[in-house]
């Protein structure tokens, strides 16, 4: 996240917002107010729902509190005292959190508002006082409200308590917060551009995907154009993988819970799974990940060292019971398509296999228009061994292997303690989109635990069983989330090779319709994705319609083209048309349609 001072400013701004709400709206009930990227929010239940006009009143009161210059005073209470204190104030949501802290040792809510019990003082909760206002919080904060930077209350949204529809409905008040006016203004400019690029808006305009109330939230449906785009991207990944010895496998979408108990996923994720009880009373789960299934494909027979590595690729959906309040377009869904792959190899093959995956990732993202990739090493937290599978020795070996790989690649990688998967460390790749936002995209994970739990071996040169290593690799990761990033990065203007419709052929008038159909047929026969516009509309409107759909090439055919003259190709985003000789049109289109690595 941002620097520590800015984080503390934003956290304090959230408290000031809650204090302002208490002053202006007696009887408000406060949820949580975490720091988020570029600002903060606070979930609040007002006596009556507020509108956008209330943001000005809240802002004015916040500046008043800041000017008063209250110190941010940290105090401790016993959990029972805190429950009575907030209960007497009618703050039911705070009491709910404290009861979790008392019974479970954690609030189990948002990471920025999380309180864990102190092992030496398990009955203590921390609160912060801001003048007369008191809030449950672990900090950190700036020393005084006057140190809060430049902020702006941004928008309102609905939020269910703890993200569950059956719970009380609150209003989420979002705020931006930066150290300088210039930083705030630059971010607001970016927000305006992001609004134009919102993948939910463009997805509808470009007819890529749809959500249905009857199907359910978080379950996108893909149109023919959207499906073409998904498949083209997946084909690009497969093109890169097949060149490096991968083979496709397929697996079912449900499994007995015993598979996930053995892998360790059940204990870790059982609350996030969709569960099915058969009529015979057996418990199955919709698969939330694919790796345990793939272990069973590897384990179908004993492999010789000569057969290693075994590289399995599988693009398939997984399902997670995400909370309704956290769903957001394609960015957060319940049906998630993963371009998953798992490599089973010997220890001495790890570096070469991971470097191959790294090559695939760099080629793919460069081809999709994301030239810069930043690398992050996600490691385990040795102070919390209960969160992870395996021994300290296994983790040391795996993390050292990743450090050596990064060194071999000649890049710098920031180490993030506590960000590893529960079964192994990983290399995460982070990219920037065209308006400066960062997104975590691909990942490579080194796993020595899953082979241990499933007893996965190969026969080595001495005829003995040798424990193998498992590498998890997702290039797009969640295809839905990647596509949300891609749509916003390109503003829906996809490059020719991936565009769902690559060329629109437009006739000048009815007399040229037959020739337009002929041109379309030649291009389609060459594998080009072509649409035809031979409606009665005038040429200008036809061209504008194609431009609204952001189709890469628009070709207008009239008497010149019928007589064998050059084609004038209107290239989306370019002012000048490109002239293509008639005999070269198909070849030029084929060349443009190739994957970027071809």
How would you characterize the overall build of this protein?
This protein has 598 residues and is of the alpha+beta class. It has 18 helices and 29 strands. The protein has 3 domains: 4-197, Threonyl-tRNA Synthetase, Chain A, domain 2, CATH 3.30.980; 224-251 and 288-487, 2-Layer Sandwich (BirA Bifunctional Protein, domain 2), CATH 3.30.930; 503-593, Anticodon-binding domain (Rossmann fold, 3-Layer(aba) Sandwich), CATH 3.40.50.800. A hairpin with a 5-residue loop joins strand 22 (457-459) and strand 23. Helix 3 packs antiparallel against helix 4 (92-104). The protein is globular. Residues 109-121 have low confidence and may be disordered.
Describe the structure using short key phrases.
35% helix, globular, BirA Bifunctional Protein, domain 2, five-stranded antiparallel beta sheet, Threonyl-tRNA Synthetase, Chain A, domain 2, alpha+beta, eight-stranded mixed beta sheet
